[in-house]
Amino acid sequence: MQPFFFRYILYVWVLLVTCGLWLFSQLIILNIYICVLIDLSLYLSQVDIPIKYLEFFLDDDVELEHIKREYGAGRLLIGEVKKRIIEVLTEWVEKHRRAHATAIDEMVDAFMAVRPLPNMFS
């Protein structure tokens, strides 16, 4: 919420209270809050967490756009999207496990060795 919105509510409330319409002012402010909550719920309903996961982990942009389009049109169910996320993350974790298994102690020691930092300010 932006501060302007709250200042607007305060100005409306002060105006109506000074006019002796306290109950009416409370109803208007309640109506404004309900409109803000409806707008917020509509925004949150457009943010799909499984799609966000796919945006981060899926490398194929064409497939990602296809999934977004099909899911947005209702032809692809959320369970199918989650199944694809599981496949992508399983592949990603397996790739990490293979890389971790190939790392030997000398590689880890070389990476963790104390070495002087380059002098960047001279």
Automatic annotation (TrEMBL):
Molecular function, one GO term: tryptophan-tRNA ligase activity
> What are the recorded Gene Ontology BP terms?
tryptophanyl-tRNA aminoacylation
Superkingdom classification of source: Eukaryota
Transmembrane helix in keyword set: yes
Keyword Membrane in the entry? The reply is yes
Q: Which GO terms describe its cellular component?
A: cytoplasm
Could you list this entry's UniProt keywords, alphabetically sorted.
Membrane, Transmembrane, Transmembrane helix
What this protein is called in its record is Uncharacterized protein
The membrane spanning regions, by residue number, are 12-34
Lineage start: Eukaryota, Viridiplantae, Streptophyta, Embryophyta, Tracheophyta
